[in-house]
Amino acid sequence: xxxxxxxxxxxxxxxxxxxxxxxxxxxxxxxxxxxxxxxxxxxxxxxxxxxxxxxxxxxxxxxxxxxxxxxxxxxxxxxxxxxxxxxxxxxxxxxxxxxxxxxxx
Length: 105
Description:
single chain, mainly alpha, 434 Repressor (Amino-terminal Domain), 6 helices
């Protein structure tokens, strides 16, 4: 199980693109419940699923690896990795919040 950063990033990327979970699940060819489990951290995405996310959102799969705790090879996140994760999550959150506000206007 990840520390939650990857799962949160996946959800924020979807929200920043103003895409409903059911629509993304259909594009990824997975169930709505499986997508929910991924976004809440109950399940972890496979590399193939990260590739599919990348295709849907025009992002390289390596973008998502920033949020993976396995980057250090020791199963822990370094302080620098955590800071980078937090910064990117804030940017994604701001993008998602702006997109949601624009959709409601």
